[in-house]
Structure formats: C-alpha cells, structure tokens
Amino acid sequence: xxxxxxxxxxxxxxxxxxxxxxxxxxxxxxxxxxxxxxxxxxxxxxxxxxxxxxxxxxxxxxxxxxxxxxxxxxxxxxxxxxxxxxxxxxxxxxxxxxxxxxxxxxxxxxxxxxxxxxxxxxxxxxxxxxxxxxxxxxxxxxxxxxxxxxxxxxxxxxxxxxxxxxxxxxxxxxxxxxxxxxxxxxxxxxxxxxxxxxxxxxxxxxxxxxxxxxxxxxxxxxxxxxxxxxxxxxxxxxxxxxxxxxxxxxxxxxxxxxxxxxxxxxxxxxxxxxxxxxxxxxxxxxxxxxxxxxxxxxxxxxxxxxxxxxxxxxxxxxxxxxxxxxxxxxxxxxxxxxxxxxxxxxxxxxxxxxxxxxxxxxxxxxxxxxxxxxxxxxxxxxxxxxxxxxxxxxxxxxxxxxxxxxxxxxxxxxxxxxxxxxxxxxxxxxxxxxxxxxxxxxxxxxxxxxxxxxxxxxxxxxxxxxxxxxxxxxxxxxxxxxxxxxxxxxxxxxxxxxxxxxxxxxxxxxxxxxxxxxxxxxxxxxxxxxxxxxxxxxxxxxxxxxx
Length: 547
Fold this sequence. Notes:
Elements (H helix, E strand, L loop, with lengths): L2 H16 L23 E6 L14 H6 L1 H4 L4 E3 L6 E3 L2 E6 L5 E6 L19 H12 L4 H5 L5 H5 L2 H4 E8 L2 E6 L6 H5 L9 H10 L15 E7 L3 E6 L13 E6 L3 H9 L5 E2 L7 H6 L3 E2 L2 E3 L2 E7 L9 H9 L3 H9 L3 E3 L22 H10 L6 E6 L11 H13 L3 E6 L3 H10 L4 E7 L6 H8 L15 H12 L3 H18 L2 E10 L2 E2 L2 E2 L15 E2 L1
Parallel strand pairs: 1-10, 1-11, 16-17, 16-18
Antiparallel strand pairs: 2-3, 4-5, 5-7, 6-7, 8-9, 9-10, 12-20, 13-19, 14-18, 14-19, 15-19, 21-22
Helix pairs in contact: 1-4, 12-14, 18-19
C-alpha cells in the first residue's frame, strides 16, 4: 500500500474512533436485539493445552483458534461447520469485479459485539470494525499498533500484506477490498482465523484507557460464545451468546475448557463424564474409547501433515545432500507403526492426499542408512556431528507423541554418525523460538486451513513465510514465482499443473521430511448432539447441544 493510502486509512480509523462515545465501562445506549433463552446446560471440553492468547490474528495453532476464533469471533465469510465450503458470515453477500481485483462485501445489519465487565458497545457492528481489523494488520503506524505491538504471521505468511492495495468504506455497511493482482484463494483466505473481526470501538476504549494489550487477553467479538475469564493452564469459561445473529446456533448455556495436558487424564475425565468432549486421543486409547458404551467415537480422514523441518540457514542443513541423507536415515515405517498405531499413513508430499492437486506420482526416498552415511561423508559431515532436534511439547493428530518420535529419529541418526540433542520448550516458547530460527531440526505439523493448495505450499514453503510458518527458512525465488502464477490463475486445471510442479521441486530440495498423515478421532459422551468434526482441525461448539 502506498504512503498516501496509509495516511488516508489512518485518518479513517482516527475519525471513526474519535466519534465513538463509549469508554471503558460505558453503558448500552439501547438494547440492540431481544435476547434468546438458552438452555441451562454446561458443556465441558477437556482441551490439550493453554492458548497463547485470544487474538486470532497473532497465532497459527489450533489450540489458540479453538479457544478464540470459533468461540468468540466471526469473519466476513466463513467455512460451513464440518466442511470447507464457504457461506456468508458477517457479510451477507459479496461481489467480485470482472477483473478479479475488487471484492465488495455487503455487511450484515443488527449484529452486536459482546460486552464484559469493563466495556459495553454503543453501536452495532459495521464497516468501521472491518477497516480497523485489517488496517491493524497492514499499517504499523496506527496508534493502536504503537501502543500494542504485535506480529501477524498468517497475514504476512500468505502474502496478504503485499496483496491488498486498499480497503475502502463505501458506506456504513459496505466495504471494498482492492487487490494489486488476481488472487484465486482470496475468499477462502478471508474465512480464515486471522480475519476474525475485532471491535474498533472496544480497541479505541482500550487505547484511551492505556490497556491496548487487553485485546489479546479479554476478547470481545460477535461470535456464539462470550469470553468470561481464563485461569492460565487451568480453565477458560464462556457463556452462550443469547444475542447471536445466527438463529438457533447456540444451544448450550455455558462452555468450559478444562485444560488437561495429559491425554490419559483426558480419557479418564471423559469416561467419568467430567467432560463431554476431549481433544486428541492417543492411538493407544482408541480401543478403550471405542468399547465404552457411554461414549461415541466418530472419525474423519485427516487433512493434515506431520513433518520434520530442516533449518536451511544452519550448516550443514543448507546442503540438500545432507537433508536427503538425514531423510534416508529415518525409518518412517517404524515411526508410523509405533507412533500412530494404525491411525496414520506414510506421507510423501508436502500436502495430504485429500487435497486437490496432490501429486500421486511423487515417491519418497527409500530408507537406506548405508547410502545415507555415504552421502553425509561426501558432503563433508564428520562422524559424531551434532545437531539439535526439537520435539513438540503438545500432542496433535499429526503427531500424537513427538517425544517418542524424536527419540526414534535420534536413534536412527546415531546409526549414521549424527548425534541429535533433543530439545523442547513450553508450546508458546517453542513456536516463538522456532519463528526466530533457533532450531536445527524440529518436529512440527500442519492442518489445512482453507482447502486450497496454496495454504500448504505457500504457507509452509513460501518466501513470505520464512519468519512465520516456514520453519525450514527455505526460500526459492523460482518456487515463489511459480506460487504466484498459481495464485493468479482462476483455472483449476492450470493451477493443478503448477502445484504438481511445485511438489516436484519440493521433493528435489527436501526442505522438510514428510512423516505422516493421521486419521482424526473425536471422543464424545453419548449425550453430545450435533457435533461435527472439522476437517480444518479445530473444535467448534456452535450447533452443539446436550441431551
């Protein structure tokens, strides 16, 4: 965006926030909608970890998104529950110009933001909230950004900071996005977590009170559940939103996240009905869960990938021959059998087989420790070379036991003369340090966010993402140029051809080693009704009830 546009955008925000009459603890001007009567029921979710925060724009992990995006917030367009098709969200409809550069969103009337003990909205959701939400990610000079500096990894990783030319308020309920170039996944991107709409009025009140960072700890949204309080590493409490704009979508009165890191404890709590939904069962627990008459265990093929990333900025991992040797030294079949125990399959590509444009012809390197040792010697890697191997501290479907996987890889590498030191940190610290590039190699994974191949190849391997979700720090300009071609084409056949070529480049350069795709199992008590497994990897409670 050019300087003049930034200045004009900043003035828009300034004018908007200057006219807001609400301050912290300001009363309602008038009731906006008649409250619905919600059932006096409480659903307890045994979650696997604490969220790093409650501002969706700042994070990339499912733990965070389950706790904020799909409880507290909405987006202009949204993915249907249990699928990847788009449906209207805070925008009732949208228009795309014939040249594909202008997206005009017509906003929903009568939507109200939540209130909490220090803030109550005085107006309905409108275009000013959309402008603030996106200008915050685009314009570091906004007063709010000066008071509360934050990173927006998804927005940057996907190239949206460079793609969006301007965001204009046409009228109070119409907003137009202008792009610098055609971008086929743009609408899908707008349904993603980072695009959750914040209240400009709330942000202005926090700024005036000197508490701008509360945007990340005391969230205010328009979503199905109202944030009440959070006790770190223990519990998050939400109330059902009786004024939710989507009729009959909220069917429980209270929602509680009981943070339970140990998966075995989560299973026991579920069996004792101390929680009705639990996250991420271990493969070893599936038989026990399936045989319990009080439980149900629906499943879905995972739209995910667990992998080992090589930091190509660290020697000797900058040498593709070394990366290929380390890959060939790993007995992935043994890992899948031990770690996934029948709930996973070997991965060969940087995306799952269920993603359109998946290259079925791609072959994985063979498990060959003898050849791996020879390649390492040819690359000048001496016997006893040391590297760090980071292991995730949390359980994910794409990696049910990162510590054990790391130990198996450590043993495999020892056989070819490489000493791996296993390192781990608390989850938030793990991701923070990985973004900074401290790791040599690390276990991590990805769950597709929007059903588009760019969400894999661009986010995990694009140059724009080297300080975000591209943990390999691998940047290839020819690869990036081809990514751009694929984004700018609206012809799926042409895009597929380009993505197949990109997967082949990946296989040649191997910035990370694909390990496995897992099956998603969702344990529930029998009295949970209406729950749908989300193929994009999150847990949603809108539409869910208890009988």
